[in-house]
Amino acid sequence: MKRLAILGSTGSIGRQTIEIISHYPDRFQVLALTAGRNVHRLAEQARQLKPELVVVENADSAKELRGMISNSIEVMVGDEGLIAAATHPQAELVVVAVVGARGILPTLAAIDADKDIGLANKESLVAAGELVMAKAKERQVRILPIDSEHSAVFQCLQGQDPDHLAKIILTASGGPFRTYTNEQLEVVTPKEALRHPNWDMGAKITIDSATLMNKGLEVIEAHWLFGLPYEQIQVLVHPQSIVHSLVELVDGSVLAQLGPPDMRLPIQFALTFPERWPAPWPRLSLADVGSLTFAEPNKELFPCLSLAYAAGKEGGTMPAVLNAANEEAVEAFLQERIAFLDIPRVIGEVLETHQNKERPTIDDTLAADRWARRQAQHIMKQHPLKG
Ligand code: MG
């Protein structure tokens, strides 16, 4: 029996995690669930899984939830609740599927409490990769990636001597605008950007896929997870999303992990690692796929990728700033306050004006995150970018 806490249980990854767990009711016990404001979904999950603790964003949601679930379940609120869930005394594995910088502190707290981490929260590694990896090493806990690309690399590396890794090749679908021109990109709407060709994901990450920032953040994640310099991490556009990523070994051999575009596989591998369990989902038929194609990403049309490489290479607080500025810009785009191509412009300006701090503490990182959000809002207010 594996004991779990699931942070962000009502989001896309959280729901799929619970779907997998329901296939194996005797092998998992869920002790804690956390969500934002989706009280109805959380109540449903709590009735199904009977956790000891559930957490919601605010007091109003907590009051609503209280009336919908058994009195024996403890209800907590906000960041304090998130930390309590992340450090639940009996949990062995904490699935961090919270979206955004809010995932950083619970991830660090869970590692401190000697929990293995199933990590779907990109920001923990992007903004605080140095701290997270150092702490994981110190506490000897596993960081199991729940992202199709990093899971692919992780799977390819099983049984390999880490010193034999020469290069990581992350694949990118290219998003819905892969074949667009600059003129077309100027006028795309949030609705168009939210229509991803292969993957069904949350709104923020879908926009990030359309700008290629998602891949940029994944490059930074890969740098920390697998310890390779940025020069040895490459991105290839692969529109079919069948090859989830590749590794090149020192002798030139290239290993890839393939599968249908379905997050349940990387989620299940993180839940069952180091075992592999049978799964009911559709199998890959390469004959049906027919052909797999690969191309260099267009860095002029999608500047977010280069911004991420630059911030990653600079290190310090730059990746935290990149991430926070991106979150603000994406939110503004979704609210139609800025245009699609303003997203990289805003991030670029915020990065340019940031005073980088090397070897940041967690407080430095969180301060840089707050600064970047204010700066992004300031830039978006100063010169109305839209139009
Ligand atoms: Mg991914």
Short précis:
The protein has helices spanning 12-23, 39-49, 59-66, 78-86, 104-112, 122-139, 148-156, 182-186, 190-193, 203-211, 213-226, 264-272, 286-289, 304-314, 318-334, 342-352, 362-382; strands at residues 2-7, 28-34, 53-56, 74-77, 93-96, 116-119, 143-145, 165-172, 233-237, 243-249, 254-258.
Number of domains: 3
Q: What does the radius of gyration come to? A: 20 Å
* Secondary-structure element string: EHEHEHEHEHEHEHEHHHHEEEHHHHHH
CATH class of the largest domain: Alpha Beta
Mean pLDDT: 95
Named once each, the bound ligands are: magnesium ion
Q: Please tell me the CATH architecture of the largest domain by its name.
A: 3-Layer(aba) Sandwich
Distance between the termini: 56 Å
Low-confidence stretches: none
Query: Main sheet, how many strands, which sense, barrel?
Result: 7 strands, parallel
Q: Tell me the CATH superfamily of the largest domain.
A: NAD(P)-binding Rossmann-like Domain
Strands of the biggest beta sheet: in what spatial order? 4-3-2-1-5-6-7
Roughly what percent helix?
40-55%
Instruction: Characterize the overall form.
Output: globular
What is the number of helical segments per DSSP (H or I, 4+ residues)? 17
Query: What is the strand tally?
Result: 11
Structural class: alpha/beta
What does this structure look like?
- The protein is α/β, with parallel strands linked by helices and 387 residues long.
- Helices cover 47% and strands 15% of the residues.
- The protein has 17 helices and eleven strands.
- The chain has helices at 12-23, 39-49, 59-66, 78-86, 104-112, 122-139, 148-156, 182-186, 190-193, 203-211, 213-226, 264-272, 286-289, 304-314, 318-334, 342-352, 362-382; strands at 2-7, 28-34, 53-56, 74-77, 93-96, 116-119, 143-145, 165-172, 233-237, 243-249, 254-258.
- A seven-stranded parallel beta sheet has the order 4-3-2-1-5-6-7, with helices on both faces.
- The chain is globular, with a radius of gyration of 20 Å.
- The structure holds magnesium ion.
